[in-house]
Amino acid sequence: MVLLRPDFPVSDVEQLELGYGFALPRVLARLVGKRVDQAQFSAVEAYSVCLLVSAMHYIFLARLITPFVRPGWPLALLLLLLPIATWIYFLFLYYAISLVLRVFRKFELFGSLPNNRFQSVIITGLTTLVALLFLRVEAFWLKSLGGFWLGLLLLNLLAIAVEKRADAN
Questions:
Q1: Which of 42, 24, 18 minimizes the C-alpha distance to 157?
Q2: What is the C-alpha to C-alpha distance for residues 76 and 80, in angstroms, rounded to an integer?
Q3: Which letter, b or e, does each residue of 34-54 get, where b requires 16 or more Cβ atoms within 10 Å of its Cβ?
Q4: Distance, CA of 81 to chain centre
Q5: Which residues have a Cβ under 8 Å from the Cβ of 123 and sit 6 or more positions away?
Q6: Number of Cβ atoms within 10 Å of the Cβ of 157
Q7: CA 135 to CA 115: how far, in whole Å?
Q8: What is the pTM of this model?
Q9: Model confidence band, residue 87 (pLDDT cutoffs 50, 70, 90)
């Protein structure tokens, strides 16, 4: 999860130009006629996607655990402590991903792929799996949340293809 501030002052630069981290906002800005810069970190995008991913995993874990907890104060306590558990879950996940990367690098696989790209692919894949599981649930709002994630993912992948095509021309 990216929690860095992209407009941190840099020496010899009066104003740091903010760009877009995801392809979809870049393509939309290009369509409106704005100058488009690609940024590694964009605060609004990073925080909103981080919040969406965390919320989806929180809801998934809550739905997984709550059938085993009695209603009332134990359930309320669980739901209050679950954000901390979700945060710990992501810490373990990032640690596991780093171990997998270490093994891959030892066998000279994915040597040129940066760590954050590999982590993004894994987290996106897991979140997409959660979204697909949400589509199978009877609750409309969970189906909508899963569909929203899959729609954003599809639009971003299409925007990547549009950018690659535009850059090739």
A1: 24
A2: 6
A3: eebeebebbbebbeebeeebb
A4: 22
A5: 53, 93
A6: 12
A7: 30
A8: 0.77
A9: very high
